[in-house]
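Bumping my old thread because nobody answered last time. Still need a sequence for this structure:
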């Protein structure tokens, strides 16, 4: 209703990015867009998730706002992703976010930015 994505959808997108699932990623992005989620909100959500994973990786306590499923997923990603990968993800998503904000067609900019992230690995 507010153009915001729920965090489980963001976790799913993040998982698809990490799995290298092109078709699934595009389908999930379009699904969220069809539900009324703004593309910039998806990008912000992914940035927030990368930040959360990085913070947990450096040893700072879990955020109590997150539910158990989210804390478990974040802890798992923190254990399996290295700092170089997390920093690269952050930079690529940040660049994509800026492109989506400025784009005439934000959904297409989001799709292209996320595909770039997926293939940068």
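Sorry it took so long. Here it is:
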């Amino acid at each position: 209703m507010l153009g915001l994505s729920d965090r489980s959808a963001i976790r799913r997108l993040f998982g698809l990015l990490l799995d290298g699932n092109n078709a699934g990623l595009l389908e999930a992005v379009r699904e969220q867009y069809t539900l009324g989620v703004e593309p910039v909100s998806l990008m912000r959500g992914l940035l927030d998730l990368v930040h959360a994973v990085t913070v947990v990786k450096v040893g700072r306590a879990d955020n109590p706002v997150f539910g158990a499923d989210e804390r478990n997923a974040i802890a798992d990603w923190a254990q399996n992703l290295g700092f170089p990968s997390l920093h690269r993800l952050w930079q690529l998503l940040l660049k994509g976010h800026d492109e989506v904000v400025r784009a005439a067609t934000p959904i297409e900019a989001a799709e292209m930015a996320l595909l770039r992230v997926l293939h940068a690995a």
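The mean pLDDT is 91. Let me know if any region looks off to you.
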